[in-house]
Amino acid sequence: MKSSKIVLIGSGMVGSTFAYTVLLRGLAHELVIIDVNRAKAEGDALDLNHGLMLAKPMKIYAGDYPDCEGADIIVITAGAAQKPGETRIDLMNRNVAIFDAIIKQVTKYNTDGIMLIATNPVDILTQVALKLSGWSAKRVIGSGTLLDSSRFRYLIAEKLRLDPRSVHGYIIGEHGDTEVPVWSGLNVAGLLPDQCESDHRWCLDEADKETIYEETRTAAYKIIERKGSTYYAIALALARICEAILRDQHSVLPVSSYLENYHGVSNICLGVPTVVGRNGVEAVMEIPLSAREADLFRASAAKLQQFLTEIGF
Is 90 found in the same domain as 220? Predict the structure, then answer.
């Protein structure tokens, strides 16, 4: 099997949990951790190395940007946190400056890898990374609404008393407040809950749908309120995307992809079902939407486009 290399930039809670997930799953032969706090990166690498006897062989070390050379995937979780009293625009401008510095270094040493963005707001920063890098849109991907879709399927499964893996449905659009649930495409083992009779075992009424959507949309706020940040599920989502790339799985995942006339939306990165494989984005799948879902999706895109304009992108 071809040797594989992942470079992680940012060893905070999301980054370090992702690194641990990579080790547990044996996703790569080589994992490099880069962080502005070199000691933190070294500590994480040492801690992970101490578990190698209990996992799979892997070369894990703290590095610097020259180590991006030869990397198959560069995962970026680094970014600034919002300060008290700071506006969203001010935060974004700081993160754009951080990304500018990071991407200049990445592209200096790597020209043919795949860039995977996890820093929030992920759709905005995926677009920023795409523009700053000058790379093909096929090779710049955001984590998109994969995490949102996982939350969505979990909550539906809880309601229907099923395994989440038996529920198939998507959240699309922004990874955030304007995300869109695709109820019209929800599928449970071939059954369409959206079309079931009201007394059917698999029926979801309008009140159920509203509750599930609100709990999906606000999930991060609840977790942050209780423990400060979210990192387990997003680390799993990032690992799943890396798996699809490194093992050339041609998996359909709702990642943040650059769109061209997708239900009337163009020139923006948003979470939509995308075929992901060894070359990154292999195809963007334009799934059927109801008229209301299409309107909500276009509204989500418009909101983010306005924000991009405000920050000069």
Answer: no
Given the residues 29, 50, 175, 263, select the one marked as catalytic: 175
Identify whether 175 is a catalytic site residue: yes
* Residue 305 tokens, joined: 């486009």
* pLDDT tens-digit series, residues 134-160: 999 999 999 999 999 999 999 999 999
| pLDDT digits 0-9 by tens, 63-82 | 999 999 999 999 999 988 76
CA dist 99 and 281 (Å) reads: 21
CATH of the domain at 256: 3.90.110.10
Banded pLDDT at 83 (limits 50, 70, 90): low
State yes or no: pLDDT of 197 exceeds 80.
no
Closest C-alpha among 39, 113, 24, 103 to residue 74: 113
Domain limits for position 206:
146-310
Determine the residue type at 25: R
Q: Which two tokens stand for residue 189?
A: 């083992």
d(CA 277, CA 248) in angstroms, rounded, equals 4
